[in-house]
Design the sequence.
């Protein structure tokens, strides 16, 4: 656990202004597919403050009113402001998806994802590959901003396809000129996936280039210390937290404290972690309206919650196969709940980092910054539901 008492909060306490939205702390929860559903967002809010963004929503599925997609854009009444991230490759479809969110009152903030590194997306020209085609990027962002009206619209992107094909500075300026309310940068290329270290110096360079709207930094924020250090080193206006909060939703409380806001003090001994895990399972059951499905969904979180704690392999395996809340209660009651926070064993990287890989791209994608007719037809197949950024 970070020694927050040793941190010197940035003074005065920073707030993050995204269009008309004023956040008490400059912290945003990154969209993560299969993770940042209503249940997880509500849990994070119970510990801290900030802007909590939905799972990535495919624009075409929203326009077609796919049942699962319409469920994913629903927010609990306690969630405010409501934030939804969209992914799309067709300007008209993205604009229509934004209009649905705004006109039907589904969101107070819309974010566009241009950071997905998943090969199934980039090989069709979507995600982190898309800003290479500057005209297409401009058309999507301008159309989305116009459709959003008074609702703030932001973009999240990566530094580029690889080190030889960086796009973030040009894309940042285009987005700023199109009227976005903020630009977020995951300081990795698509080729890096989630491996290696994020290049925070890229965030500094983007901040120097984009001056009229907030610039948010993302990448390798595993603790509140990291968040404070990123803002200090790069001059960015806020941070976007992804994998660092997996199995550790109380990180948002630590972040609030680090930035000078009020948040309950946390001593994450094993009893505390067990209660957080149980609460997460309970919220998932409520979200899915199905105890079995909710209990199955929490299974992927077991390793993250109990990282570094004295929870044996057999117990972890049983937690990862339990199918009712009553079973979880029995298993959690067997844990050595007086076990203290294990320190560095519970800290550091969480989630899969993967390995660097050559990005999958459409044929001859890098030969021109303009989109030709064949490419236009090909990227239409890129609207799949994948996470990333």
Sequence:
């Amino acid at each position: 656990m970070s020694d927050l008492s040793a941190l010197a909060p940035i003074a005065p306490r920073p707030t993050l202004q995204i269009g008309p939205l004023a956040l008490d702390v400059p912290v945003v929860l990154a969209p993560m597919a299969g993770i940042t559903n209503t249940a997880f967002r509500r849990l994070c809010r119970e510990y801290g403050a900030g802007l909590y963004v939905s799972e990535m929503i495919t624009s075409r599925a929203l326009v077609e009113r796919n049942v699962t997609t319409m469920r994913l854009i629903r927010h609990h009444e306690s969630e405010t402001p409501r934030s939804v991230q969209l992914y799309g490759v067709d300007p008209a479809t993205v604009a229509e998806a934004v209009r649905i969110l705004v006109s039907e009152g589904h969101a107070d903030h819309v974010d566009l994802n241009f950071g997905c590194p998943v090969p199934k997306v980039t090989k069709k020209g979507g995600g982190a590959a898309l800003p290479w085609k500057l005209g297409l990027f401009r058309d999507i962002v301008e159309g989305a901003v116009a459709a959003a009206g008074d609702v703030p619209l932001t973009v999240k992107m990566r530094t580029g396809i690889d080190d030889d094909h960086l796009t973030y500075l040009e894309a940042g300026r285009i987005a700023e000129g199109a009227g976005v309310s903020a630009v977020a940068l995951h300081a990795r290329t698509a080729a890096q996936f989630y491996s290696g270290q994020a290049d925070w110096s890229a965030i500094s360079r983007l901040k120097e280039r984009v001056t009229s709207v907030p610039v948010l930094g993302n990448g390798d924020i595993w603790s509140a210390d990291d968040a404070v250090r990123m803002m200090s080193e790069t001059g960015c206006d806020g941070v976007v937290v992804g994998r660092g909060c997996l199995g550790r939703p109380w990180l948002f409380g630590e972040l609030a404290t680090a930035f000078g806001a009020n948040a309950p003090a946390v001593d994450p001994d094993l009893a505390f972690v067990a209660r957080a895990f149980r609460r997460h399972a309970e919220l998932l059951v409520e979200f899915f309206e199905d105890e079995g499905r909710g209990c199955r969904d929490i299974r992927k979180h077991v390793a993250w919650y109990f990282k570094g704690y004295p929870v044996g392999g057999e117990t972890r395996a049983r937690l990862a196969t339990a199918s009712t809340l009553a079973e979880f209660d029995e298993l959690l009651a067997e844990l050595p709940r007086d076990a203290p926070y294990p320190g560095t064993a519970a800290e550091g990287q969480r989630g899969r980092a993967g390995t660097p890989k050559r990005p999958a791209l459409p044929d001859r994608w890098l030969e021109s910054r303009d989109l030709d007719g064949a490419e236009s037809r090909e990227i239409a197949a890129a609207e799949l539901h994948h996470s990333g950024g």
Summary: Residues 270-340 form a domain with the Four Helix Bundle (Hemerythrin (Met), subunit A) fold (CATH 1.20.120).
